[in-house]
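Re: the request from the purification team.
They wanted to know what the chain is likely to look like in 3D before they choose a buffer screen. I agreed to run a prediction and write the result into the notebook, where they can find it.
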Amino acid sequence: IYKTEGMERSYSRKGNPWDNACIESFHSLIKREWINFYHFETMKEAKKAVFEYIEGFYNTIRIHSHCGYESPMEYEKNYKILKKMRLEKN
């Protein structure tokens, strides 16, 4: 099915198991938190669900440890505020 959708398979380089660690972690999350709760009849439905997870939850609501336990959206908002405050000080 990946070929009919214009996708390519991606493999880690030999001897480098860390190549895809971030995306493998994300795949585990999206399956556990979203995909496993649905049955998709079409690729369009699956794509819509993935989009909803990423844009409607993962980037906007779900907290991330690397963002100081804020959502990426909240982290970006706070970063811009701090940056503006620093610029105003100088």
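For the purification team: Helices lie at 21-33, 43-58, 72-89.
Please add any questions underneath this entry.
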